[in-house]
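Single Protein Entry

Contents — chain, fold
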Amino acid sequence: MKKIGFLSFGHWTPSPQSQARSAADVLLQSIDLAVAAEELGADGAYFRVHHFARQLASPFPLLAAVGAKTSRIEIGTAVIDMRYENPLYMIEDAGAADLIARGRLQLGISRGSPEQVIDGWRYFGYQPGEGETDADMGRRHAEIFLDMLRGQGFAQPNPRPMFPNPPGLLRLEPLSEGLRERIWWGAGSNATAVWAAKLGMNLQSSTLKSDETGEAFHIQQAAQIRAYRAAWKEAGHTREPRVSVSRSIFALVDDRDRAYFGNGQEEDQIGFIDERTRAIFGRGYAAEPEKLIEQLKTDEAIAEADTLLLTVPNQLGVAYNAHVIESILTQVAPAMGWR
């Protein structure tokens, strides 16, 4: 395990039991947690993107703010739903945020997941083309985004511009060099992982994937990662790809941990993310550090990946989540080969 970061879904609720009762609370606490995680030595601060929900939704202002407040930690998403995105405008937003962060963005994108409203992307002005599904549209938006990130000029300049133009066709600005190699695809199946490899994207695999073999989640996820690496090699890419997996992992080191998460071992769960797709949801881990290390060493997908994203209960507040991260980094991660 080379890198360990956290992943926040950015929930808020007006409940008095929540430490995050408004969108402002979540945004400001997300910045504070990223700063705390960097000080603790974590490698990444990642944020989920959900629309029409009391969760983080517009990633680039947050990523830019985190980039301005930190100096070392990777800053990313897991994932941006490309069905909702204008790929060209996203180039400008991503370029600006990456330049503010001095090249530390790691953008996870995907075709999206079941959401709060029916066909929410329609309200954003997008509609699949003839013969396309919404998933096809998301992948099409992703391919445009990747192509534009190469920085090639494509727009015919005005012969009488307001400001002088460089020679040739114009590209989108600001462009951040190197960001193209820091785009990740959130794959829910083996086939989309292979597709991502062919396009030269890194791989994010979460705690949910299509149940393709009936085996345990971590075994299926490990097979997905191996299929991705094989496709990457076959595509002839010259750089080494990166692969992340997400897990809910809690080291029970004090009474708070035991009260929140000490209710017994979790197991994989089977469900349906739509009428046709049977899915498997990976188990969480919560145990004393010594037992936790033993459990995690049997997780084949963690062994296959180079990056582990710890999902954090953001509504419990910055101080407690920093404690959760620190417990893993100091009492569990070294035994897993980190640092």
